[in-house]
Amino acid sequence: MRKERALFIIGIWVALLPQIGIFESWRQVLYIITGLAIIYIAYLFYTAAKANLDKEDDRVKSFVDNIKSGEE
């Protein structure tokens, strides 16, 4: 499942969780599990964005290395 879809489904879950008639202690446990899932998905987004930035930095550096210094 894609990260975006999982985050969307978790958002719906959080919106519906107070409406479900379950015990308060169970609801707190479900909120904690949901929060941990959100933290994990946010970490996946962070690592993907960082890898994307590293790839862009490599492209820029290889471009800069190919520029002549003007000394001829």
Task: Outline the biggest β-sheet.
Answer: none
Rg estimate, integer Å: 22 Å
Give me the strand/helix succession. HH
Q: Whole-number average pLDDT?
A: 81
Q: Count of DSSP E strands?
A: 0
Characterize the overall form: rod-shaped
Give an overview in words:
The chain has 72 residues and is mainly α. It has two helices and no strands. It has one domain. 78% of the residues lie in helices and 0% in strands. α1 packs antiparallel against α2. The protein is rod-shaped. The termini are far apart.
List the helices and strands and how they pair.
Blueprint: H1 3-16, H2 24-65
Helix pairs in contact: 1-2
Summarize the structure.
This protein has two helices and no strands. The chain is mostly helical and 72 residues long. The protein has one domain (3-65).
List descriptors.
2 helices; 72 residues; mainly alpha
